[in-house]
Design brief:
By secondary structure, this protein is mostly helical. It has two helices and no strands.
Length: 69
């Protein structure tokens, strides 16, 4: 039983790390796109921002779940 919990915990950390990498990448892309498009009202900027929000919520949810285990 302990081994399974440990393996699941390691897997969850890997998923969180992956989400963190995606968040970093999207933040950089968002910053660049805002500079190119000249503001936040552009459709591409909004799309990237929404995608970033989704990853942030996923990561927060997983971190909270892991903390409560």
């Amino acid at each position: 039983m302990y081994y399974t919990q440990k393996r699941d915990s390691v897997r969850e950390v890997s998923v969180i790390d992956s989400l963190e990498d995606k968040i970093i990448e999207l933040r950089k892309k968002l910053t660049e796109t805002v500079q190119i498009k000249g503001g936040f009202a552009d459709e591409e900027v909004i799309r990237i921002s929404q995608q970033l929000d989704t990853y942030i919520v996923q990561m927060q949810s997983r971190q909270e779940k892991r903390k409560n285990q």
